[in-house]
Amino acid sequence: MIPETDLVRRRELGEFIRAHRERLQPAMFGLDPGTRRRTPGLRREELAQLSGVSATWLSWIEQGREISVSATALGRLARVMRLTPAERAYLFDLGGRRDPQAGEDDGADALPPGLAATLAALPTPAYVLDRAWTALAWNEPAAHLFVGWLDGDAASVSCENNLLRYIFTAPAARRIIRDWETRARRVAAEFRADYSRHLQGPELRALVEELTRASPFFAEAWEAHAVVDREGGLRTFDHPTDGFLRYEQITFLLARHPDIKLVMLAPADGAGDQAATTP
Length: 279
Prior knowledge:
The protein has 13 helices and five strands. By secondary structure, the chain is an alpha+beta fold.
């Protein structure tokens, strides 16, 4: 039997494509609107021809039948139907396919307007990471906390503001992060979850190769192929001037910028003695 969720997904996909097809005007594509159209928008055969797919295949999709839907075909439909980024993402979600363009657009890692000012207004350490886990922006409390990473010249010399380089190659990280081995191993597993979404990206492959050469510990952790989500929780540090510090980490994904993370560390007043660290 076909799971109910699959039936709902196929039905939603067909209704979504049909609704957007009916919103397209023939004149948008240089087609004669004629006077004998029984339905609004493009005919199914017209959308199929413009998208380079079979009219029968498109008909079955709109009927919610169980047929194969490739990422290439979905991409053609999205282009012809002139979907917005949100609509395109929705189309691929319904089709159960990964969008080959997702996260690869120019400026995907650009800092959204106003975010830097938001960071500056936060009273606790906060920073923004791009898809390679390089810090795009951070506030003064974060610069004070992360010695050897975000504190000015020292950061640019040791790790170029990249969190992975800091954790696995900067001596300061081992001194500041409590239970460094446990946390570093988890960071490698968290990064692998992000890495899987950009397997074709040369930047991330180069970073992994660099860290594998530079850090035997990273090489071992990466070879384990562990994968976990980047979750919040207690983060503890031994700061060179402030001593023992405890924070609760909260990570946010930004709307329309799925590869950018906003990480905030809130003081963990009253937290237990459990030690768990990493930025």
